[in-house]
Amino acid sequence: MSSIRELARRCGVSVATVSRVFNTPEVVSQQTRQLVLGMAAEIGYLPNESARTLATKKSNMVGLVWDTDHRRPGWRHPFLQDILVALKGALSAHGLHLLMLAPDPGAGPGDPRRFLRAVQRHNVDGVVIIDNGSRDPAVLALADAEVPCVALDLRFTGPTCTYITSDNAGGGRLAAAHLIERGHRHIATITGPAGNWPAAQRLAGFREALTEAGIPLADGDVVTGDFYLDSGHAAMTRLLERDPRPTAVFAAGDEMAVGAIKAIREAGLRVPDDVAVIGFDDIEVAALVPPGLTTVTQDKTGFGTAAAESLMAMLAGTATPPEPTTLPTTLILRGST
Amino acid sequence: MSSIRELARRCGVSVATVSRVFNTPEVVSQQTRQLVLGMAAEIGYLPNESARTLATKKSNMVGLVWDTDHRRPGWRHPFLQDILVALKGALSAHGLHLLMLAPDPGAGPGDPRRFLRAVQRHNVDGVVIIDNGSRDPAVLALADAEVPCVALDLRFTGPTCTYITSDNAGGGRLAAAHLIERGHRHIATITGPAGNWPAAQRLAGFREALTEAGIPLADGDVVTGDFYLDSGHAAMTRLLERDPRPTAVFAAGDEMAVGAIKAIREAGLRVPDDVAVIGFDDIEVAALVPPGLTTVTQDKTGFGTAAAESLMAMLAGTATPPEPTTLPTTLILRGST
DNA sequence: CGGTTTCATGTAACCGATTACATCAGATGA
DNA sequence: TCATCTGATGTAATCGGTTACATGAAACCG
Questions:
Q1: What domains lie within chain A, and their CATH numbers?
Q2: Beta bridge partners of A62
Q3: Is the C-beta of residue A12 closer than 7 Å to nucleic acid chain D?
């Protein structure tokens, strides 16, 4: 691998000049520039990023902390793929690479500093956190990183931190309003795990809209799930035992909604005639599962692009981190309501 | 940020000793080791990875080249998420980080060296390529990287290269055998784009099994799709116009199979009674779309773990790259056949 | 007891870049 | 004509580690 010194020697110039050709080409003469670039192409010279990072303390890498919950092997964020595609695209456009960090081996598996340490060792210019509400201490510890941080789907603040979330409360309101408009007066909901902020917001918005419409929400009509399919099935089964039975259900996640539909079918009832179902997320299956799941969609691509933008703003050196971004949610009408 | 020299000074030892404490602790005395570790914890010292990489030429980073097809914004690999989860998990276990590389900005958008250059600049210890048969020159150029490379779902050979694929031919055979066993004698297929190797293998295995069973496959019963839903719908629509109409269809991808089911339904026919459908991939929707899609499943997690293992083998310094891995495919019976 | 090992540690070169500062030739201007 | 400015380039310190080699003390051994 040819170094800058080798290239400088071959060109008969100093290393400083070569460096300038690549970093501040405008200060070097046309003639020298072409000489160096030509020779660089000839011998296949490429600057070594580690050396540049060492010298400049800028790595052009953004750390990605993700999938931190080792206790749950099936952990997944519903939009991981969409977010990654958008995030990588947006960062690439700025010449930034995305480093998916392994926990620091020097810290034990339970050490809350295992990601912070990994971040600090690698001179990343910023960090993106993808979580879904686990509130893992190892994630929260990242607020201490003296580096711009953007968290997705997680309230996350700090002197150099901001976050992106969907308008979950608004989405919950949309769902309630839609069901009310469809004439339902007894509406149940399957919410997410206690302590999960997006789930709580969805429930809050939903409840608010019901209250405004003068529709009561009994405690027994609020059942907790864990966002996965089976929990939706189980929750719905319980709801169907209620007397009177709710005529509509708002599930705080599409997977749970699909599970609910399954349970309704198994009980010999029809969707939406006997029980209407509305979900949240608009995952791929929503469009494909019959009768088509009406749902509240999140701007999946927006997560990635907004994260990149917030990060770029902080990298540009604003004194205070950008305000948290709230992505709009919208209703997608399909057959289940 | 405290440096190794700072730490050495505070401990009253040389930088070499500090370095040894972290890299070859067995050669330094118990006493000194504890002194250094204690002080390191106290002042929060962490070694700088860029500096280590510069000195050792090992970065503990694996480059990930992915989503190279800029012409198709919706590009996606059916298993990207599963692969990433497994890959990251397996690499993390070995202390390796995954660097999702942006194309080198110094190369134009169409430059076939844009990924190779990014790889070379970053001192990555290895490269993983996720492709789905685009045969992008920028991907093929990576064979010249003097670094271990593992490609997923792509035949990719070279002095330091190997690849992981599913047993696509075997899967095609499984699909055919299953339909034959179900009594079908007129079976059509929706294949992938010309030049797509996995698709070609699936077709080959499928065709082979039919031939062995003495069942003809007319040219008109082979229709080409592009792996996406709409193409499956369109292909099936054409197949339904055939006279006689096939009684079963093998789609080389689940999304196309779902599209096919949709087309069959829209034509007023039933699945599987009028036309049976079998897919390939076992994506999430397969289980959820009624009547449940019978399909050939790939070992999604296996892609990630096998890639990590092949990579580790090459990093361990074997003279020749490991043989390509062929992951077994198996049949998943559901309601569509 | 002198010589050889062994163990712990130190010295200093090196990895490949960036960059503050110095230099120097030629152009400018009074 | 000489001082001054400008533009292009060079010198050398620096970033934060690793590691070959040197050193010196203690242990071992015939």
A1: 4-47 (1.10.260.40), 61-166+301-327 (3.40.50.2300), 168-297 (3.40.50.2300)
A2: A98, A126
A3: yes
Which of B60, B64, B116, B122 to substitute to test the interface with A, most A CBs within 10 Å? B122
Instruction: Name the helix (H) or strand (E) containing B156.
Output: none
CA distances B69 to A61, B90, B109, B131, B135, Å, are 22, 26, 11, 9, 9
What string of pLDDT tens digits covers the 337 residues of chain B? 689 999 999 999 999 999 999 999 999 999 999 999 999 999 999 999 999 999 999 999 999 998 655 445 556 778 888 899 899 999 999 999 999 999 998 888 888 999 999 999 999 999 999 987 767 889 899 988 889 999 999 899 999 999 999 999 999 999 999 999 999 999 999 999 998 899 999 999 999 999 999 999 999 999 999 999 999 999 999 999 999 999 999 999 999 999 999 999 999 999 899 999 999 999 988 988 888 999 999 999 999 999 999 999 999 877 788 999 999 999 999 999 9
Contact B99 A100 (CB under 8 A): yes
B-chain residue closest to A90, CA distance? B102
Residues 6+ apart with CB under 8 A from A311: A62, A91, A126, A128, A148, A150
Residue nearest to nucleotide C12 (CA to C1'): B16
